[in-house]
Amino acid sequence: MTLRPYDRQAAVDYAHRWAYYRNSHYYNFDELGGDCTNFASQCLYAGSGVMNYTPTFGWYYNSQYSRAPAWTGVPFFYNFLVREQESPGPVGREVPLEQVQPGDFAQLRFAPGPFAHNPVIVDVGDPPALDNILAAAHTEDADCRPLSTYPIQEVRFLHILGVYR
Fold first, then answer.
1. Do the beta carbons of residue 124 and residue 34 sit within 8 Å?
2. Residues near 62 by Cβ (< 8 Å), separated by ≥ 6?
């Protein structure tokens, strides 16, 4: 498989366009645990253009009832992106704050337990810091929100390396 470039600008543009709205092509999961990873996946898809239809462990969306766990679940999104095998779709890795770029993702933990929020990074200051890394998100809708304004107990960053086609 060939690793192709990820269109970061397309992901960021999508995030800005839909941060305070819902794209009618996707179900709104606000009432079913939150819409943050659904929105993150939409942004990632805008920048990658490739879904992975592998049952259970892929990353895809057809409808509310036909989607991979990674499309809407924070830990599954992480597991899909950092997978070892070369399979269709975007691929990433966990990186330190200094290596984050627009179009990447932050995963936030607010209390003991799993990571629970998955905003898309839309801007990064120089040098990168939690108050100048800006994010867009659903559930608590936001655009250009500094990560420092979230009650973060822990954060991890997912840098998108490219897209397998």
1. no
2. none
